[in-house]
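Sample intake sheet
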Amino acid sequence: MDRRLIFALNEARGARRPAILITDIASGDAHIVNEAECADPSLREAIAAALLSGKSGLVEAADKTYFLNVHVPPARLVVIGAVHISQTLAPMARLAGFDVTIIDPRTAFATAERFEGTRLVADWPEDALRTQPLDMFTAVAAVTHDPKIDDHALQAALTANCFYVGALGSRKTHARRIDRLREAGVGDAAIDRIAAPIGLDIGAASPAEIAVAVLAEIIAALRKRTLTQNLGEMAA
């Protein structure tokens, strides 16, 4: 493989950007595209579908055969709040293949004893997210019930176009949250993307059951992203 292509793939991997190495089977010519680049309109839909599935394979387009070698960042879950729900959610999410980080400035909660094997950041979200920015392959679940901790993380998640943004709280709590986000300049279309009350409606009652509902909703958001959404992101 051309060294420049290897460097480009490594750069994309380091920046958590998706990239596809496209090889013309007949000629051997190869080039790289990401979610915002698709010079060949005949490959546009195939590239979007590949980004959505994360699977490599052969495609036919304009009487040619191409191999799409897909490099998609691993899905990540950032949980805002080292609470009881998080104690169940973190290990389940790791088993489901997510890279998990928990952010909570309250050091009495964010302890290694309570979250063995999980990456903990005992800092305010606005500080923590400067060094580990969010992206479209990240899910954010805000579960502290404290607007001083949750609100900034929610705004950052919406700005980064995270594939899932959820927030714990009743409908009344979320109504007050909406007022705060509007005052902070967040538009209604972005606010509508927040899953609140968080988690699938399975009648969950205990923290562990809520964690199950949240993880199920996150997986659904990851696997059921629409092709139209991906095409829109590519054209942005």
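Comment: DSSP finds nine helices and ten strands in the chain. Residues 227-236 have pLDDT under 50 and may be disordered.
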